[in-house]
Design brief:
This protein is α/β, with parallel strands linked by helices. It is built from nine helices and 14 strands.
């Protein structure tokens, strides 16, 4: 028989047992705390997402959310949280909606809104998110340049530097009332993952004019409208991905005959789907439309963000609520977006001969005469 442990040995064993128990409890507690965190939820969600091939796809995260009027600090933090979650779920490119940190109410005081955004170090916070996550991040916010106000989109690279800048060109009535000026910057930027085009809200109408033709469609487009739309569409041709940032309110959205319907949300979502299909048909690019959701100062935003492929097929569509939509786009051997249709071939872009227009929908344009564009609000 072995000797019985003495008191000293027994005490040592009890001490070791106690230390192990405390360490085990600490590990369990830490794991439980981590598992309840947004980071853990993001990793878990990433594992549940469609399996991807690293280096062969570009994961796009479309962030659809609402902002709170008069609460800029909260809005900036809220948007940064969305971007952090998206990057945590493996996104390579994160896109925020139009007026990413503010609502319509603040547009009546643009100088104060811009000054407050910088006082809160908003640009630095967003750049830091891109830099720390080594990802691309696109947002939209008003800016003042040489005394003029612009509705500005910025694309940040993985170092947090500005890779592309766009100013909204086609202004709605609310833009003009807010004293925004029409942008003149290029609409397409050449980036490491491909050529990317930029749209902001009412810029979508350009493709509708081009698609319908002069005086022949459901939208009344003059020869001038048609010619101007064709010139604008031509600038986007050659883009691999076109991104439209929106703040689309349901009851600001009439039908194409300018008659409000009983279900404005359904009508608005259908219009977004139609606009995306027209843009991809006119350019052969992937098209992502990123909208706001929720309510703010009496405006109800429809959500319904989506991404369509060069065939016009919907690859992903968000609900009408708060959501992050993830879509993986294929990359070619050089790491750039591969624009392929369902047959695995480059998409066909239908362009008419200069000055000619078929009297049916969906053909596109190649030229036309000049004229004046009718002001419409949506």
């Amino acid at each position: 028989m072995g000797a019985k442990p003495n008191a000293r040995q027994t005490g040592f064993r009890r001490l070791v047992t106690a230390v192990c128990a405390v360490a085990a409890f600490a590990v369990v507690f830490a794991l439980g705390h981590w598992a309840s965190s947004s980071n853990a939820r993001g990793i878990a969600k990433r594992l549940l997402l469609q399996r991807r091939q690293p280096g062969r796809t570009l994961r796009i995260a479309i962030c659809q959310y609402g902002t709170r009027g008069g609460m800029l600090p909260w809005n900036v933090d809220h948007a940064a949280d969305f971007a952090e979650e998206a990057f945590g779920n493996g996104a390579d490119l994160v896109i925020l909606p139009e007026f990413s940190f503010s609502g319509f109410a603040e547009l009546t005081a643009l100088p104060e809104l811009i000054a407050e955004f910088h006082r809160l170090e908003g640009p630095e916070k967003i750049r830091r998110v891109a830099r720390q996550n080594r990802g691309w991040l696109q947002y939209n916010h008003p800016v003042q340049v040489d005394g003029a106000f612009y509705n500005e989109t910025l694309l940040l690279d993985p170092d947090g530097r500005i890779a592309a800048r766009y100013h909204k060109r086609n202004l709605a009535l609310i833009d003009r009332r807010s004293k925004f000026s029409e942008g003149r910057l290029p609409v397409v930027a050449d980036l490491p993952f491909g050529r990317m085009g930029f749209l902001t809200c009412r810029d979508l109408d350009v493709a509708l004019f081009a698609d319908q033709g002069p005086d022949g469609g459901e939208i009344a487009a003059s020869a001038d409208d048609f010619a101007a739309a064709c010139r604008s569409i031509e600038e986007y041709r050659g883009a691999d991905l076109i991104v439209g940032q929106l703040a689309y309110a349901a009851w600001w959205t009439p039908t194409r005959r300018n008659v409000l319907v009983n279900d404005p949300i359904t009508n608005a979502l259908t219009r977004l789907e139609d606009a995306a299909a027209i843009w991809t048909r006119q350019t052969g690019a992937y098209v992502a439309l990123v909208n706001k959701s929720g309510f703010e100062h009496g405006h109800g935003f429809t959500g319904g963000s989506l991404l369509v492929d060069p065939d016009g097929e919907i690859l992903g569509r968000a609900s009408s609520g708060t959501e992050i939509l993830y879509v993986d786009l294929p990359l070619d051997g050089s790491g750039r977006i591969a624009r392929m249709d369902r047959r695995g071939e480059p998409p066909e872009v239908v362009v008419l001969e200069s000055g000619k227009q078929e009297n049916r929908k969906g053909l596109g344009c190649g030229g036309g005469e000049t004229g004046k564009q009718e002001e419409r609000q949506h």
